[in-house]
Specification:
- The radius of gyration is 23 Å and the shape is globular.
- Helix 2 (24-34) crosses helix 5 (65-75), helix 15 (251-267) packs antiparallel against helix 16 (271-286) and helix 19 packs antiparallel against helix 20 (366-380).
- The chain has 417 residues and is mainly α.
- The protein has helices at 5-17, 24-34, 37-40, 46-57, 65-75, 79-83, 101-104, 110-113, 116-137, 139-155, 164-187, 191-207, 211-227, 231-245, 251-267, 271-286, 302-318, 324-341, 346-362, 366-380, 386-399, 405-416.
- It has 3 domains: 5-96, no CATH class; 109-209, no CATH class; 318-417.
- Mean pLDDT is 82; it is low at 86-118.
- The chain starts with a helix and ends with a helix.
- The protein is built from 22 helices and no strands.
Length: 417
């Protein structure tokens, strides 16, 4: 008799916990290592795969044939030991074996591509869905989802039957789509993809004479350089983007660019200029009219303004250029705003908690740091953001030397998975 998903989950957990006692994170790494090199690049990152392992072990559904074969290779157990006879046993829903995002953002269909106006509208509708999903799920899996859409959208330009007006509308939508793909690639730490997508955005924005979008995409380039620890390049890109934005950009766009410049100046230890740029960002945000803003600036909210201030102050505190108490206050404010106004933005809240825990550590409050870090870990484990995972790993490394029960309990919890 073929075992059901509950029994399969029990077997998978038993195989993982058998000597040498792998954590879920280690199990995820071994599943990825068991894949062929060509297949490995299509698998989700470890953090996302850990979430799937939890679902499988809980018996919510069983892994598909693709993952069953990886389990057999990774655990050195037979198919029958893990899954019984080779028949379906409530296998995972058909969403690409990685995440239910494909159910929410389905790949472009042949029928949709056969109708040009619908295809253009489809790109625009896709962008709206992506903006809603981004903060809930993170970039790891959305990157995989968006790739096919970008290719399909660009393919439409090869059709000479497109009218000029429709072509410009499509190009504007594609520019928004590639900018989103660039940001998702930053979040997933897929640096080569981020550079290509954002370069394409700047080109498409110039083709449609949208200097506001071009400057905004350059702001993302600045952020990309910042996360790759190239603060001087980040500063130069932010300044170039601000120069372009003076010709044509909305208040929220300029606010975002001032924040990009502030992050770069803070990383470079320029306290006064960083504060000036943060104040300019707040001033621009206060001038905005939501009715005149494009959808790609919707994230520039009061939460974003306060959070970026906290991030800059934390960076300066890490360099011992100001008191960490100032960073704690700003980050606590940002976290309160986020949890009360956008509680579904799990990735942002996880990021803010990670920053706040770091600030508490700088204030020599390891117990408080451990408490907040534990909350961040709970959130981060439910989403797929390699960028957030990197920041959390940095925090754990800072905490490890502290011989405090709360800290050691958190480190053990994270290590065990």
């Amino acid at each position: 008799m073929t075992p059901g998903s509950k029994e399969i989950g029990r077997r998978l957990r038993a195989a993982r916990e058998a000597p040498p006692h792998w954590s879920r994170s280690e199990m995820a790494r071994r599943l990825r290592a068991a894949a062929d090199p060509d297949e490995r690049v299509r698998l989700p990152h470890v953090a996302s795969l850990v979430d799937q392992i939890k679902q499988w072990e809980a018996g919510k559904w069983a892994p598909s044939a693709r993952y069953r074969e990886l389990y057999v290779r990774a655990t050195a157990r037979t198919w029958d030991e893990l899954f019984g006879a080779e028949t379906d046993a409530q296998t995972s829903p058909n969403f690409g074996d990685a995440h239910p995002l494909s159910l929410l953002v389905s790949p472009p269909s042949a029928e949709a591509e056969s109708s040009r106006p619908l295809a253009v509208e489809g790109v625009e509708a896709l962008l709206s869905r992506l903006y809603r999903l981004d903060d809930e799920f993170g970039g790891n899996e959305l990157c995989h989802v968006i790739e096919g859409h970008v290719t399909a959208a660009f393919r439409l330009f090869n059709d000479t039957a497109l009218k000029l007006r429709t072509q410009r509308r499509l190009l504007t939508a594609v520019a928004g789509l590639t900018q989103m793909a660039g940001w998702l690639s930053i979040d997933a730490t897929r640096h080569g993809d981020a550079s290509r997508y954002l370069s394409a955005t700047v080109y498409a924005a110039h083709e449609t004479d949208d200097l506001g979008l071009a400057s905004h995409a350059m702001g993302y380039m600045s952020l990309h350089a910042f996360y790759r620890d190239r603060p001087q390049r980040a500063r130069a890109l932010a300044e170039a983007a601000l120069s372009l934005a003076r010709a044509e950009a909305t208040p929220r766009t300029r606010a975002a660019l001032h924040n990009r410049a502030a992050r770069a100046h803070a990383r470079l230890g320029d306290v006064n200029t960083a504060r000036e740029q943060l104040d300019l960002a707040a001033t621009e945000h206060a001038r905005d009219d939501p009715h005149d803003e494009p959808q790609w600036t919707a994230y520039v909210s009061e939460v974003e303004i306060v959070a970026q201030r906290g991030a800059c102050l934390l960076d300066l505190a890490l360099q011992e250029l100001l008191s960490p108490a100032e960073a704690v206050a700003a980050l606590t404010n940002a976290l309160h705003l986020a949890e009360t106004t956008t509680p579904d933005h799990a990735r942002d809240i996880a990021h803010y908690k990670t920053r706040l825990a770091t600030a508490h550590l700088l204030q020599d409050e390891p117990e408080q740091a451990a408490r907040v870090a534990g909350e961040a870990y709970d959130l981060a484990s439910r989403i797929g953001s390699a960028r957030i995972d990197e920041r959390f790993d940095e925090l754990v490394s800072r905490m490890q030397p502290y011989d405090v029960p709360e800290v050691q309990a958190l480190v053990d919890r994270v290590t065990i998975g």
